[in-house]
Each structure stands twice: as C-alpha cells, then as structure tokens.
Amino acid sequence: MEFNKVIEKRRTIRDFQDKLVPESIIEYAIENAFKAPTYNHLRDWDFIIINGLESKLKLIESEHLDKIINITDLEKLFEKEDIVKKEMYLDAIPKQKKMILTAPSVIVVLFKPKTKVEKAKTIYDLNCLASVWTCIENFLLSLAEHDVFGVTFIPQNIDSIKAKLEIPVDLEIASIIPIGYMANDAKILKQKTINIPERIHFEKW
Ligand SMILES: Cc1cc2nc3c(=O)[nH]c(=O)nc-3n(C[C@H](O)[C@H](O)[C@H](O)COP(=O)(O)O)c2cc1C
Questions:
Q1: Candidates 90, 132, 151: which one to mutate for ligand 1, based on the most atoms within 8 Å of Cβ?
Q2: What is the DSSP letter of 159?
Q3: Closest C-alpha among 195, 181, 192, 115 to residue 147
Q4: Sequence-ordered strand ranges (E) for the chain
Q5: 80-120 per-position pLDDT tens digit
C-alpha cells in the first residue's frame, strides 16, 4: 500500500469486531516494529501477545477498570475543554475496559530502560522510552496496512501488571495495545485540525 495511504489509514480504534487477527499479521507488524530507530542500536523491546480472557482480566484488575463511570460527572469534568479533546475523552474513558475485553488480541509492549523513568532528569535519560514509541508507531502502521487497528493504552499500575504477567523486573511496560478489525459502528474521532505552516519555523522560532 502507498505510504501516505497507510499514514492516513492509521487511526485509534476502540470498537472491535469479534474476528481474530491472523498471527501472521501480528508477527509481520512486530517485524516492522523492530525496524524503527532506536537510541542505543540494541532495540531492547519485547511483545506479549494476549489472546486469553484470564490475562485480559489481570490487566483490567490491575488498572481498576471495573469502576462504574458516571457520564454526567465526566461531562462536567471536561466541560471547559477544547471540543475535539472533550469528544475524545467522553468516548474513550467509558471504553477502557471494554476495548481490552473485546479486542481479539492485546499486545503488551515492553522496553528495557536505561534509567528508571522515575529517576530520569533529562530528555536524554528518556531515550529508551522515545525509542520504544517509534517502534509502536511502526507496529500500528503495519497493522493498519492490513485493516487492523489499535489503541495505545498507558497503564498506571505497572508493578501489578508486571507481577501478574511474570514480566522480568528490569523491563518496563510502554503500552498495552488492544488490536482488532474495526467494528461496523466504530467511532473514529475527529483529529484536531492543525495549521501546519504555523508550526514550521525556520532558523529560529
Ligand atoms: C502516549 C499516548 C497515550 C495514550 N493513552 C491512551 C489511553 O490510555 N487510552 C486510550 O483510549 N487512548 C489513548 N491514546 C490514544 C489517543 O487518544 C489517540 O491517539 C488520540 O486521540 C489521537 O487519535 P488518533 O490516534 O486516531 O489520531 C494514547 C495515545 C498516545 C500516543
């Protein structure tokens, strides 16, 4: 597929069809993920492919996603926000548990930190995190080429997930990515329009 078509096609999807993603598509996306640039040339990344309910429930339990969400409270919380951002949160927040449960596969992306994130003092210390996100973008683009979409969920309770999924202590979780084919009524949220020329600067800001 043409490069610009893949870039256009990749969107965050939180509503999935009940249809398995072939392992070959996931593995090909992981191969492409490993072609991304990396800060130390080592590409210290790992992928856990979760297909079973038991492991999905471990993620939901660790992240306390079982709480009931009151839409009126949520609307109040975002009432003063930019409309595009508000629409995104009002759609996304209630779907955090469902998207993990209904995605046919959930991918946990791991990286080896050079410096513990909480000890980072400079941007340089976060090169490992920056690198794993270049890898995640390659992964998402490769899936999109095959009509498979995902949503990058960022966990808060990493230690709990690491313990439940037996992840080595020296690795960190960059993202948990429910993936699948888009449901027929999947919500594709508006992207904020950016005036690109305004964002490009020459010689100085
Ligand atoms: C670093 C990062 C963190 C994100 N965290 C979440 C998340 O926790 N839950 C979620 O549903 N979406 C999450 N997203 C998805 C964004 O909401 C989405 O990328 C954004 O709204 C833009 O939409 P688009 O990807 O369709 O262009 C995250 C995306 C990024 C890059």
A1: 151
A2: H
A3: 181
A4: 45-50, 105-111, 148-150, 172-181
A5: 999 999 999 999 999 999 999 999 999 999 999 988 888 99
- Contact present, 45 and 34 (Cβ < 8 Å): yes
Least Cα distance to 24 among 115, 126, 114, 148 occurs for 148
CB of 92 sitting under 6 A from ligand 1: yes
* Top-level class of domain 3-183: alpha beta
Is 127 touching ligand 1 by the criterion CB < 6 Å?
Answer: no
Task: Enumerate the domain spans of the chain.
Answer: 3-183
Whose structure tokens read 């992964």?
139
Give the pLDDT score at 67: 84
> So what's the pLDDT on residue 118?
85
Alpha carbon distance 29, 141 (integer Å): 8
Quick check: 17 pLDDT over 90?
A: yes
Residues 54 and 202: their CA atoms lie apart, in Å, by 53
User: 69 pLDDT exceeds 90?
Assistant: no
